[in-house]
Amino acid sequence: MHATPDSISIATVAIDLAKDVFELAFADAQGQLIERRRLNRSTLAMAFDNVPPRRIVMEACGTAHYWARRFQRGGHAVTLLPAHAVRPYVRGNKTDRTDAAGLLEADRCGAIRPVPVKAPEQQGIQGLHRVREFHKAQRTAAINLVRGLLREFGIVIPLGSTKVRAAVLAALEDGGNELPMPLRQTLHALLETIATIEREMAQIEERLQGFADRDPRSQRLQRAGGIGLLTATALSTSVGEFDRFDSGRCFASYLGLTPREHSSGKVRRLGRVTKRGDVYLRTLLIHGARAVLRSATLARKKQQPLDRTRQWALALAERVGHNKAAVALANKTARRLWAAEHHRTSFDPDHASAWPH
User: Which of 16, 171, 236, 265 could form a disulfide with 218 if both were Cys (CB 3.0 to 4.6 A apart)?
Assistant: First the structure.
């Protein structure tokens, strides 16, 4: 963009990101739309070189963090807005032009919390998590396929992924069953495929461990009950600085672990959890809470001492059931993680809040 009398008054630029064609909307200091442009990918890459610093607004969607880092290196201030928060500001039919104009309107709303721009390493760790989930889905599909095929011949494999290989090998070596030889050979090859997938997953976990070893935040998060390597590294890279949330409840709400509210006047109605935010993070926290509940149950059977958190979780599970207690424990864990990061203290499962009298 070359400086012109009109472009000098430009204060904010909204960019509707795409694969090849990008729609740009320019606004003045009062937020009024004064110009539009449509650029291809190669033109956009050079459009903001050698121009005065601008405020650039984009949706936090695919390629947004890459473009944000590129524009920041050019001295521009970049704001990434959550896509779900921008949609209500798009007027009329959904087009690239209305999307860009909607970004300008959403940028004027001070209540929308922007998304921090991620560093390349953060995106890389998130990519490792996605690849691991892809391999896990492949392994699950392959194991289910093996189970289903063998069940057709009256061979039932015990539950548990760790028991599959030994049971299938025993069935393949058993000459007394009805398995045809071509299927035996194919199932053996499928077992090797599963083993290869598991090795790939193990290698990814080693790389995640290497990141956690040099990331102090991941190390602090793993001191909490129910937080392991996967959850700690996912939270550290996806959330970033916990202090950008005003409270522990805001953080739990960001993860979709707080109740949905439908209240009016003096009547307050709370429903199920909202399930908003990152599904993967919420799933990891809830699975971690289930593990804590299970360990607490086993410890109680063995008459071992329990900390305050596990006592509370067991008592809640007896009242509302295991699943609701697991979600509630995940909510409590998220709030305490925020508090520990905010106050720079260690996670304490025996912590009791001091309420003023």
Answer: 236
Average pLDDT, the chain: 91
- What CA–CA distance (Å, rounded) separates 158 from 162? 10
Residue among 155, 194, 152 nearest 176 (CA):
155
Write out the two tokens for 141.
């599909």
pLDDT higher than threshold 60 for residue 355: no
pLDDT band at 30 (very low <50, low <70, confident <90, very high): confident
Question: pTM higher than 0.85 for the full model?
Answer: yes
- Residue 14, phi then psi, degrees to nearest 5: -100, 130
Name the CATH topology of 7-107: Nucleotidyltransferase; domain 5 (3.30.420)
